[in-house]
What does this fold into?
Amino acid sequence: MLLKIIVDGSRDLGYSGIMTTINYNNKKMKLPFEIKSHSTAMVKRTNPFSGQSTTLPGFAACVYDYTVYKNHMAEELDAKTGQQPGFSDNQDEWQIVRNGLNFFRQYFAKEYMVLLD
It folds into this structure.
């Protein structure tokens, strides 16, 4: 049920396919998709499987929330169509997930290890 709450709460993050950038800690970061918040206020996120938590800037939390949401939706779509997750005909959905994961690997490696690995 926790995942359902996260999914329902992240529907408003918005995805338009536009790549944007943000400057954070003197680094120019390329966002994997458009997000509605560019906040740098630190927020907490918890891995629903391990229970481990970490803090990250609000914009990165938006990327995390949307990546988790799209992963859930892609897995659900693959299950409905009887296809193997990640290797299905739903590659547009999976590409969004990969873009979000790559963002974390590149810019937030420690947080990636806690939340997504």
Remarks:
- The CA atoms of residues 42 and 57 lie 4 Å apart.
- Residues 1-17 have pLDDT under 50 and may be disordered.
